[in-house]
Amino acid sequence: MSTNSLGQEGDETARETETLILQRVLSVGQKEIARETGLSESTVSRWNDGEYARWAQVLSFLGLRVVPQSAIVVTPAYLHSLETLAEIGLKAEKKRPGPLGWD
């Protein structure tokens, strides 16, 4: 990918996105992608010449991420809340007496 105005974090996100796309393309196969999109295999094959990288940059610029369908995505605020609750629970567990109250 060429240097652009995405910045270092945006460039890294774009690289991660491109990598994920390429891995998935490899696992599914260009023939299947061509069939599902109604395009020729040669058109899909040409996307390897920088088209995936270009779209990865666009997605990064737009503040979007590509994630597997099985991924669960949460906001930073939600994650922070879970971390806080876990920390409170761990502190309470340490203060709790054992099952008999003396161990």
Automatic annotation (TrEMBL):
Protein's name according to its UniProt entry: DNA-binding protein
Keywords: DNA-binding
Keyword DNA-binding: yes
InterPro entries from the UniProt entry: Lambda_DNA-bd_dom_sf
Domain of life: Bacteria
Record bears the keyword DNA-binding: yes
Organism classification: Bacteria, Pseudomonadati, Pseudomonadota, Gammaproteobacteria, Pseudomonadales
Organism of this sequence: Pseudomonas lundensis
GO molecular function, one term: DNA binding
